[in-house]
Amino acid sequence: QRIDLFIKNRHKLRQRYDQQLSQLPIIIPFQSKDNYSALHLYPIQVKHDIVRKSHKQLFSDMRLHNIGVNLHYIPIHTQPYYQQMGFKQGDFPNAERYYSSAMSLPLFNKMTHEQQNKVISILSRVLR
Fold it and tell me: Is the distance from CB of 22 to CB of 50 less than 8 angstroms?
């Protein structure tokens, strides 16, 4: 019964993220005006042509500051089962490139502006 309210709250938080993160060397998630997402994730992409830290280093830096970021969408062809079937690194460069730059920031219904500001502040620092 409260799902619409939860999604509405996430959309407000997404808008704050979009505004506050717009000047950082990242790509913010695209939201089509034709769709209304539940926003269960807020996956950013780091611009590695500007940011010289590795994906793992950024993840570790954020986690070190108690920011619950997550990595998603490991390319399936890099999994051991598919490697045994003959797939190899480089077979799907777009999937690999996305995985090497994507990280989900915390986004949840009850997130406060203070919590979101902390995420933004720490992200700004670790991207330098």
Answer: no
